[in-house]
């Protein structure tokens, strides 16, 4: 398959992987880390464009996080594909991140050396050193495992894909020196975007969209459900009251149920002239 055909196939695979079960999504993306003709062709096109115009900027989003620089080649809610350069900076601190995603990576310029860690009942334990040669594919289920890449004498260049599970992504930060869990977070990108749209509707005073706020109260994360309720109350308090009463009685998350009950009491106090 030519690089152009590979690039077109990659676009179709990323689109199909977005809605596929995790195992199927990985199977769709994995071949494009084995056969990287599409990526080689992409680099050649970029170099040619820069030769013609030194001010040329590629049409990809770039980001930086500490020693790591990323060029995002494909991005959906669940699928991330990027070219990453990690500078040879000595690691400081003793924290490691479990992203909650499944990671595939292929070293491009030198072998990858890393320390491995695994989660066991919310405590992190070392699993020894990991090694991945140039051109090989390393797979890590970052819901339970992670790597701490060891610096070398030169930057490390990787082609990397991350596949998120369907639904909320649960990430953790742990201290490997003590084994303790330091922080955890939950995110659901699709529902987060829906919440942003609801915020916009509330800011525009679109009371005619109240039904959409009620439908959004089934979001999978408790913090998101409460955020929707706040927006709903700000848009149309009277319409939101039945849903707030239901939340105060039946919400599964204890903290959100308490917030709903307290808010219900405050609204009652404000409505009472006494």
Description:
By secondary structure, this protein is an alpha+beta fold. The chain folds into 2 domains: 3-187, Sandwich (Jelly Rolls); 189-270. 41% of the residues lie in helices and 30% in strands. The longest helix is centred in the C-terminal third of the chain and has 18 residues, at 254-271. The mean pLDDT is 87.
Q: What does the largest sheet look like?
A: 6 strands, antiparallel
Q: Which class do the helix and strand fractions yield?
A: alpha+beta
Structural domain tally: 2
Beta-strand share of residues = 25-35%
**End-to-end distance:** 78 Å
Count of DSSP-assigned helices: 9
- Low-pLDDT ranges: none
Taking Cα atoms only, what radius of gyration do you get, to the nearest Å?
A: 23 Å
Element-by-element helix/strand order? HHHHEEEEEEEEEEEEHHHHH
Q: Could you estimate the helical fraction of the residues in percent?
A: 40-55%
Number of strands: 12
Using the 3D structure, state the CATH architecture of the largest domain.
Sandwich
Q: Can you tell me the overall shape?
A: globular
Biggest sheet, spatial arrangement of strands: 1-2-3-10-5-8
- Overall mean pLDDT stands at 87
CATH class of the largest domain: Mainly Beta
Topology:
Blueprint: H1 3-18, H2 22-29, H3 31-34, H4 37-52, E1 61-65, E2 68-75, E3 79-86, E4 95-98, E5 102-107, E6 112-120, E7 123-132, E8 138-141, E9 145-149, E10 156-163, E11 169-175, E12 180-187, H5 189-203, H6 210-215, H7 222-235, H8 237-250, H9 254-271
Antiparallel strand pairs: 1-2, 2-3, 3-10, 4-11, 5-8, 5-10, 6-7, 6-9, 11-12
Helix pairs in contact: 1-2, 1-4, 5-7, 7-8, 8-9
């Amino acid at each position: 398959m030519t690089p152009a055909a590979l690039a077109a196939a990659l676009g179709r695979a990323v689109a199909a992987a977005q809605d596929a079960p995790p195992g199927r999504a990985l199977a769709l993306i994995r071949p494009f880390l084995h056969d990287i003709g599409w990526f080689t062709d992409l680099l050649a096109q970029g170099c040619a464009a820069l030769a013609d115009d030194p001010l040329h900027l590629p049409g990809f989003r770039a980001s930086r996080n500490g020693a790591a620089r990323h060029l995002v080649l494909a991005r959906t809610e669940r699928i991330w594909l990027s070219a990453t350069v990690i500078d040879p900076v000595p690691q400081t601190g003793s924290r490691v991140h479990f992203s909650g995603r499944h990671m595939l990576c292929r070293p491009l310029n030198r072998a990858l050396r890393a320390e491995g860690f695994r989660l066991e009942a919310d405590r992190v334990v070392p699993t020894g050193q990991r090694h991945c040669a140039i051109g090989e594919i390393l797979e890590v289920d970052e819901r339970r495992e992670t790597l701490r890449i060891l610096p070398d004498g030169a930057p490390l260049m990787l082609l990397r894909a991350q596949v998120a599970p369907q639904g909320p992504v649960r990430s953790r930060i742990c201290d490997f020196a003590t084994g303790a869990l330091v922080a955890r977070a939950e995110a659901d990108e699709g529902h987060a975007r829906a919440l942003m749209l609801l915020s916009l509707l509330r800011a525009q005073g679109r009371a005619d969209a109240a039904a959409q706020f009620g439908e959004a109260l089934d979001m999978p994360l408790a913090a998101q459900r409460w955020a929707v309720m706040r927006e709903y109350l700000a848009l149309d308090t009277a319409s939101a009251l039945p849903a707030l009463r239901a939340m105060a009685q039946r919400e599964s998350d204890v903290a959100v149920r308490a917030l709903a009950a307290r808010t219900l009491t405050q609204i009652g106090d404000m409505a009472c002239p006494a």
